[in-house]
Amino acid sequence: PKKVTIGHLRQLWRTKTPITVLTAYDFPTGRLCEKAGVDITLVGDSLAQVCLGYESTTQLTMDEMIHHCRAVARGSKLPFLVADMPFGSYYSIDEAARNAFRLIREGGVDAVKIEGGKDIIKTVAKLTAIGIPVMGHIGLLPQRHTVFSGYRVQGRLANRAASIVADAFALQSAGVFAIVVEAVPAPLGAYITENLQHVPTIGIGAGKATSGQVLVINDALGVAEWAPKFVRKFGNIGEKAEEGAKAYIQAVRNREFPDNEESYFMAGNEWRKFIH
Ligand code: KIV
Ligand code: NA
Question: Would the CB of 44 count as within 6 Å of ligand 1?
Fold first, then answer.
C-alpha cells in the first residue's frame, strides 16, 4: 500500500474509478479510514457538530481544527489528507494563505478545502499558485447556513443551478484538484461532472454520477442520532455502542464484572505480614 497522491486521484478519475472519501476527526477514525482503504481522508469542519457539540461549523476555530488534524494525521498516513478551512479563516487572501500553511505545517495535512465558488476565486487561485492543493466545495455551503436560512438542497431553481455550474468552472480555472458538490439535484451533479474537463467531482447528496462520493463517517456508520436524506447507514455503531455501555453498567451493578479471569492474583499471603 502506497501513499495516495493527486496523481493517483487523477488516475482514478481518468479511468472512471469512483473516488472514495470519508471524514475523520481523531486518531481512531483516522486509523479506520486508512485500514478500510479510503482514497481521501477529510478532516471536515463537520468536526464542529459531530465531535465538539457546536450548533454549526461557524463556531469552529483554526486552533481546534489543527488539534484534530494532528490526531488524524497520526492515524491516517496512506490516504490523501485534506482539511477544511474553518469559517473566517480565509476572509482575505493573506489570511487564507497563512491559515492554509498552518493546516499543512502544524496540522500535517496534504491539502485544504474551501467553501465557495466565483466569490472566493482569487483566494483559491492564490493558494494553488503558491503550491497549496485546494479542493473546492459548491452547492450547499454549511458555513453559510445563516445566509441560506438553513441547510437545504441547492440549485432546484434555474438561476441558482446555472450559478453553481459557473462556480464549478471558476474553481476548475483557479486550479483546484477536485470539487465537492453538496446537496444538489442529481442531474445538476451529473452535468457538472460531465462538463468539467480537468477535475473530478466528489458528491454528497449530488446523485450517482459524480466522480466520487463523500460521507461524514458518523453518518455512514450510524453513530449520529439524526442524518440528512442523502445519508445511507452502512453500520449501526450508535445502537451497538449504547448496547455495550448498558451491558457494562448492568454487569458492574450485578457484580458480574470483573470476573476472576479479568483480575490479577499473586502467590501466597506473605505480603499481609508487612502491613502494620
Ligand atoms: O465538513 C465536512 O464533513 C464536509 C464534507 C461532508 C464534504 O465538508
Ligand atoms: Na465541511
Answer: yes
Please give the DSSP secondary-structure letter assigned to residue 262. G
Pocket test for ligand 1, best of 140, 145, 154, 204 (most atoms within 8 A of CB): 204
pLDDT tens-digit readout, 193-241:
999 999 999 999 999 999 999 999 999 999 988 899 999 999 999 999 9
Q: How far is the CA of 232 from the centre of ligand 2 (A)?
A: 18
Q: Determine the distance separating the centroid of ligand 2 and the alpha carbon of 110, expressed in angstroms.
A: 16
Vertex 201, ends 45 and 81: CA angle to 5°? 45
Residue (of 76, 75, 65) closest to 106 by Cα position: 65
Strands 201-204 and 178-182: parallel
Whether 182 is catalytic is: yes
From 55, 64, 182, 262, active-site residue: 182
Q: Taking the model in full, what pTM does it have?
A: 0.96
Where are the CATH 3.20.20.60 domain residues in the chain? Answer: 6-235
ipTM of the complex: 0.99
Q: Which of 84, 81, 80 is nearest to 96 (CA)?
A: 84
CATH 3.20.20.80 at 6-235, yes or no: no
What gap in Å lies between CA 5 and CA 99, rounded to an integer?
A: 22
Percentage of the chain exceeding pLDDT 70: 100
SS3 223: coil
What tens digit of pLDDT does each residue of 112-149 get? 999 999 999 999 999 999 999 999 999 999 999 999 99
Q: Residue 81 and residue 40: Cα distance in Å, rounded?
A: 6
Q: Which region, left, alpha or beta, applies to residue 261 given φ > 0 means left and ψ of -120 to 50 means alpha? A: alpha
β-strand partners of 43? 83
